[in-house]
Design brief:
This protein is of the alpha/beta class. It has two domains: 207 residues, NAD(P)-binding Rossmann-like Domain (Rossmann fold), CATH 3.40.50; 100 residues, UDP-galactose 4-epimerase, domain 1 (Alpha-Beta Complex). The protein is 41% helix and 16% strand. The strands form three sheets. A seven-stranded parallel β-sheet has the order 3-2-1-4-5-6-10, with helices on both faces. A three-stranded mixed β-sheet has the order 7-9-11. A two-stranded parallel sheet has the order 8-12. The chain starts with 8 loop residues before the first strand and ends in a 9-residue tail after the last helix. The relative contact order is 0.13.
Length: 362
């Protein structure tokens, strides 16, 4: 029998973040008989503006809460009578994890533990949907057809992916030990509207619009599997409703692209949609190769066949279409981007920490 939203009170952690906000924008109007509580500490990458469209909905509540606050989490669960959790709150940027690993462990591991304990204390009658990443599986060879499956061994390369791997293990352990209804999803790289401009696609769009350099790690050949955030959110809804207790589902859109291919496509789209550079050159001329990131995984690729068959889910957005829509959104919301990145603050991060690699552009 399918799990239900109706009659439940679902805590969505990190609901002012990129994926969490897009998920709430999907679920709140779609399930009016359920209550949704957005638990978010409003870190640097969060923005309540993302959920402004639903803030007056009668089945939606926002509470500012840091999931590292164990007592605060337990008190909030009791006050709202939380029955279920969709857990997205996380420190998620690999680059930041290289310079401050501790906060990733505190939030992603201990924060997850606090949520699991709080739901167990509520009587184990709800579902805990734990939203994770394909990065926990490590790296695939560039020249193989291999893809990550639910049974793929964990082999994390960064403090970020290691912290997410630990939280995955905790969630599964709580299913086996305490009988908690846990479902884990591991998703490929997300893109789409409202993404904080430190991640590859919004950073490159923002820099291309402003005529800034476009820093690309190494030779740009590292491959990622891309999924539009709307397709990911549909997959999360399906996992909540139809996922097998204790089950794991990989969510991906069969859209492998090298980082360089993605950046070049963004350049071409910005050239077509925005004013030309003062020099008249293509924005591809802004690409600069920089020293590679330590522990940089070569390739991610998702086999989502289990999610397609068991959850009756499939991605609908082609990468080229989704990327064009995303570039258009950032063009129309340049004030929001400027407010987020403080006039290029994260570009300065690249300049501080990464020496120029290969010369030239592409």
């Amino acid at each position: 029998m399918d799990h239900q939203f109706e009659g439940r009170c679902v805590a969505v952690t990190g609901g002012c973040g990129f994926i969490g906000a897009n998920l709430l924008l999907t679920l709140v109007p779609r399930h009016p008989a359920a209550r949704f509580v957005n638990l978010d500490c409003l870190s640097y990458a969060a923005d309540p503006a993302r959920v402004a469209a639903i803030e007056a909905a009668p089945n939606y509540t926002f509470e500012r809460l840091d999931i590292r606050d164990r007592e605060g989490v337990a008190e909030s669960f009791g006050r709202h009578d939380i029955t279920d959790v969709i857990h997205l709150a996380a420190e998620s940027h690999v680059d930041r994890s290289l310079y401050d690993p501790a906060v990733f462990v505190e939030t992603n591991v201990l924060g997850t533990l606090n949520l699991l304990d709080a739901l167990v204390a509520r009587g184990r009658h709800g579902r805990f949907l734990h939203v994770s990443t394909d990065e926990v599986y490590g790296s695939l060879p560039l020249d193989s057809a291999e893809r990550f499956r639910e049974c793929s061994p964990y082999d994390p390369s960064s403090p970020y992916s290691a912290s997410k791997a630990a939280s995955d293990h905790l969630a599964r352990a709580y299913h086996r030990t305490y009988g908690l209804d846990v479902v884990v999803t591991n998703c490929s790289n997300n893109y789409g509207p409202w993404q904080f401009p430190e991640k590859l696609i919004p950073l490159m769009i923002s820099n291309a619009l402003e005529g800034r350099e476009l820093p690309v790690y190494g030779d740009g050949c590292n491959v990622r599997d891309w999924i539009h955030v709307s397709d990911h959110c549909e997959g999360l809804e399906a996992a909540f409703l139809r996922g097998e207790p204790g089950g794991t589902y990989n969510l991906g859109a069969d859209a492998e692209r090298s980082n360089l291919q993605v950046v070049q496509a963004i350049c071409d789209l910005v050239d077509a949609m925005a004013s030309p550079l003062p020099s008249g050159a293509s924005r591809r001329s802004l690409i600069r190769f920089v020293a590679d990131r330590p522990g940089h995984d070569l390739r991610y690729a998702i086999d989502a066949s289990l999610a397609r068959s068991e959850l009756a889910w499939a991605p609908r957005r082609r990468f080229e279409e989704g990327l064009a829509d995303t570039v258009s959104w950032y063009l129309e919301n340049r004030d929001w981007v400027a407010a987020c990145c403080g006039g290029g603050a994260f570009v300065d991060h690249y300049a501080r920490h990464y020496r120029p690699g290969k010369g030239g552009s592409a």
